[in-house]
Amino acid sequence: MTIASTSSSPDIAPYVAKIYRPMIRGYFGVAAVYYAVLTLLHFGVHSGSGLLVIVTASSIASMVLAFFWYGLRKPDAFADLHIITTIANLFMLANVMIAMEIKFAQADLVYFIIMVMVFALACTSMKQVLVSIAAVIAGLFYTLLKNAPELLVDYAFVTSAAAMTAIAITFYLRRAVGRTALARYEAENRLEEAQVLSEEMRHLSLSDSLTGLPNRRAFFETLRTSKGDKGAGFATWLVLLDLDGFKAVNDGYGHLIGDELLKAVATRMQDYCGAKAHLSRMGGDEFNIILPNSAEPCIVEAWCRGLLEYIARVYLIEDRLVQISASIGCHQIDPVAGDAQLIRDTDYALLHAKKQGKNRVVVFCEEHAAVAAERFRIEQALRVADFDTEIDLLFQPQFDLGKTGLSGRRRLPAGKARS
Q1: Which of 194, 229, 358, 408 could lock onto 244 through a cystine, CB 3.0 to 4.6 A?
Q2: Section 9-18 average pLDDT
Q3: Where are the alpha helices (DSSP H) in 206-286?
Q4: What is the DSSP pairing of strand 235-244 with strand 286-294?
Q5: Whole-angstrom distance between the N-terminal and C-terminal Cα of the chain?
Q6: Are 409 and 397 in contact (CB under 8 A)?
């Protein structure tokens, strides 16, 4: 759609069209009804061949205008709005000219003045306004020269005044529409930029800055969602993975090498998991995996062992060969269990895997929780114990009977708690 004299930027043309479209549609609707009523009125005014001509002309105009009105209900219909507006204006001007040819009446000359004003307000560009007004003035002058040349001067002044007024009004109207469209264009652009920025900020808030994996917050959102997913015959598993000996890599090669190693491990885990599982980094050298659609623990164990083998392959980082292993704890997700309890139980399985020698997979069972709870109670008791009054350290000599002499003696400490 061509919109002139509204803004120097062509980008706002669609916004100007959106503003004009309901206005033009209303204009077509009113004009269609007017010519439908006028068609009926012609039967009381005209007769003979003149009636046939004028009724045909007004009927066609009414149907064309109604067609345009109906078509504009769709936002993408009639992209060239100025073309259909010009066609509608020409049909209306033709009706007035035909009526004047059938029966000239000085009182009917006012229709030309009305059309000057209406066309100016209904056109979608200043160029179209000038063309439409020029066509109306040409039709008026033709009618006057043919039927009443003595009225030419009077109507020339009146029509010119009406045309100048209409052009001035429409100029400022389109200027206001252009500013409104520009404001809407800028507002939508800012809104789009804000939405993009919001999405970027959300992505950053849910991503780990080092590896680019989903972070702790994203993990808990996915965990809550996975509790509501129920597949027939399938279960969702939580997998906790912790690297073995990562601190030694950091101490031996430095934190920069350690960071690169974490990136390389994250890349391998992404390659292995693919779209099947949700992988996230909880922090440090700990990673979490939510593994859906896995029925049996043996299947999960086999999948995790494959992941450990893949992670344990040698890494080449800045001309250094680095090898590392990992331990895994698994737990089937219970939809009714709390997040803290689920993660704690899975962590018990992970700790058990590390105690068994690392680089292995352990599926959680209640025994792991019991052992961990007992160990926790002992640790807490030792932390608050009074070593002077509650604990005695005794030394018991031990001998190797296969050897003689003091060289075969080993002296080992043993502790005994006293209540």
Answers
A1: 358
A2: 69
A3: 216-228, 246-253, 255-273
A4: antiparallel
A5: 94
A6: yes
In the beta sheet, which residues pair with residue 412?
396
What are 61-76's pLDDT values in tens digits?
999 999 989 888 887 7
Element (H, E) at 60: helix 48-71
pLDDT tens-digit series, residues 351-396: 889 888 889 999 887 776 677 677 777 777 777 776 667 667 777 7
CA dihedral in degrees (119, 123, 127, 130; nearest 10)? 10
Tokens of 34: 């007017």
Degrees to nearest 5, angle at CA 241 with 237 and 243: 170
Residues in the chain: 419
Under 8 Å between Cβ of 12 and 185:
yes
> 238, 342 in Cβ contact below 8 A?
yes
Indicate the CATH number for domain 216-390: 3.30.70.270
What is the rounded CA–CA span in Å between residue 177 and residue 37? 32
Residue whose tokens read 């219909």: 77
pTM attached to this predicted model: 0.52
Phi/psi of residue 400, nearest 5 degrees: -95, 110
